[in-house]
Amino acid sequence: MLRFLTAGESHGQTLVAILEGMPAGLAIDFEQITQDLRRRQGGYGRGQRMAIESDRADFIAGLRRGRTTGAPIALLIANKDWKNWQLTMHVEPEPPEGATGANRAAVVRPRPGHADLAGGLKYEHDDLRDVLERASARETAARVAVGAIARQLLTSVGIEVVSHVTGIGEVVLPDDPPIAFLTAAAIAVDSPLHCADPRAETAMIAAIDRAREAGDTMGGSFEVIARGVPAGLGSHVQWDRRLDGRLAQALMSIPAIKAVGIGLGVEAARRPGSRVHDEIVTRADGAADASALARPSNRAGGLEGGVTNGEELRVSAFMKPISTLMKPLRSVDLTTLEDAPAAIERSDVCAVPAAAVVGEAVVCFVLAQALLERCGGDSMRQLQSHFAEINAHITRRLTRRRAAVRTS
Length: 408
Hints:
By secondary structure, this protein is of the alpha+beta class. It has helices spanning about 30-40, 50, 85-90, 115-125, 130-135, 140-155, 180-185, 200-215, 245-250, 350-375, 380-395, and strands at about 5, 15-20, 55-60, 65, 65-70, 75-80, 160-170, 170, 220-225, 255-260, 280, 290, 295, 305, 305-310, 315-320, 330-335, 340, 400. It has eleven helices and 19 strands. The chain has a five-stranded antiparallel β-sheet with strand order 8-7-9-16-10. The chain has a four-stranded antiparallel β-sheet with strand order 1-2-6-3. The longest helix has 24 residues, at about 350-375. The termini are far apart.
């Protein structure tokens, strides 16, 4: 069973992640993990915090000589901004000697759209910083590090995962034709919004600039595409084993994500069945030793009945605008219950490209979970052997063979 936990606050000393269930023998590419963390920090519309942090995952357990041992993996991601927050965020009853930074006042004016009020009421906090520090999207850096390890497990069996931004505000890419996997994979790393359409990206940047000038924020959407996903991951036999539901939960757990779509997503509700379901046909070429089946379309996004069907996996997520506005919305001071503007915390104008990287990470993790459930194995050798055997069986079942020629 592959699972992970994270700990840490946005302005605390460090973020922590523990990943359990990774097979032994996976060689870890540390630079690839750093690159994924760096991608999460990029994108047009990010705030000043990204100029301070330079995230790197320091592994402290579960690896030996660059390979997983099968034991739980523990990693830390230091917060470089900690030096400016020690007097506010110290864990001891009193500030330790030499603590630095400002001693900030309690946060008592909740931001509409954030966890501030709901979390404060649930945990009975007077200072809402006890809520916002953990509810902050800063925690997703730990998820990206975990997802980067899961990505390397997937890569070992030929599964690749990419993402691309499909919309910012009202500037949205058309659904048809879908962006090809190779097109998304070819987007330059330094692309401002990681959008496959340069003209649309220019319009998206202009929308972000207008929001910044107005003291407002912008949301948007992104798609995650996985190629090489075999048929048979997930299950239809229980509600909590359906892979579409598990992917939706993982993506919805990313801060500010408000909706998730598989394949066509909500568009499937607008069309008749004849324009939604992917037909199953025999290949016209009739070649020997080739799959006898073909799918002319992939509107289901590679998932039918909660199970992968061998087509590309396509999942979309939709992000609301960031909750902190430089021209704050109306709120209430919880100490007096009088009207007051919402609190202002250092924040982004738009973080959709970063959310897309987090989306990749959580999709990688859920796929890695499903892969291990399907194929099993406590070591990489066992996993890869089982994976090859299962897929060879499917290939044989769906391969057209020439009928034996009878001779007298």
